[in-house]
Amino acid sequence: MRKLNIYIETSVWSFAFAEDVPNYRDDTLAFLERCRAGMFETFVCPLVLEEIERASEPLRTKLSELVRQIGPTLIEFSPAAAELADRFVREGVVPAGKPEDAGHVAAAFIEEMDVLVSWNFRHIANVRRAERFNAVAILAGYHRPLRIVNPAEVLYDEEDESP
C-alpha cells in the first residue's frame, strides 16, 4: 500500500509542546512518532518554517529541532500556490488577516497532498472550511480533493480494526 503524502501545518508542530492541552499534545506526539517511523511521507512549505521563526525562545529552538528530527520534505510555495491562497481569501474561505492559513492549504493542493493535518479548527480543519477549500480549488482547476484532518484522525485511521 502506498504511503499517504501528508502536509503538516504549523499548529501541529506547536501542539507537541502544548502543556495546557495534554490530549492534543499526546495525539500530536503519537502522530509525529509515526511520521518519524516513516509511516507517512511528510511535507511542509516555507510558511511553516517562517511561522516557527516568529515563535519566541525557547519554543522556537524546540520547534526547529522537532522539525529537523522528523525531517519532512520541504516543498516550494510556488506562484501557483500564492495565487490559490489569494483566491481562498478573496472567496472568503479564510479571513484576509490569516493569509498563512490559506497558504498552507494552497501549497497542499498544488503539491497534490493526500492529507493536510492541522489543529487549527477555526480557519483550516473543520468540515465547512474543508468543503469550501475543495470547492474553490475545483473552480480554480485543481480536481484532486484534499482531506483536512487533525492528528488524532490520522492515528485512528491507521489503527488495526478489531472485531
Features:
single chain, 163 residues, Rossmann fold, five-stranded parallel β-sheet, 8 helices, 10% strand
What do these coordinates show?
- There is one protein chain.
- The protein has a single domain (5-155), classed as Rossmann fold, CATH 3.40.50.
- It is globular, with a radius of gyration of 15 Å.
- It is built from 8 helices and 5 strands; from the N terminus they run βααβααβααβαβα.
- It is an alpha/beta fold.
- 53% of the residues lie in helices and 10% in strands.
- α7 links the parallel β4 and β5.
The CATH topology comes to Rossmann fold
Radius of gyration: 15 Å
- Rounded mean pLDDT is 94
Q: How many DSSP E strands?
A: 5
Low-confidence stretches are: none
CATH architecture: 3-Layer(aba) Sandwich
Q: What's the name of the CATH homologous superfamily?
A: 5'-nuclease
Task: Output the CATH class name.
Answer: Alpha Beta
Written as H for each helix and E for each strand, in order along the chain, the element string is EHHEHHEHHEHEH
Residue fraction in strands: 5-15%
Compute the number of structural domains: 1
Query: Helical residue percent?
Result: 40-55%
User: For the report, how would you describe the main beta sheet?
Assistant: 5 strands, parallel
Shape summary: globular
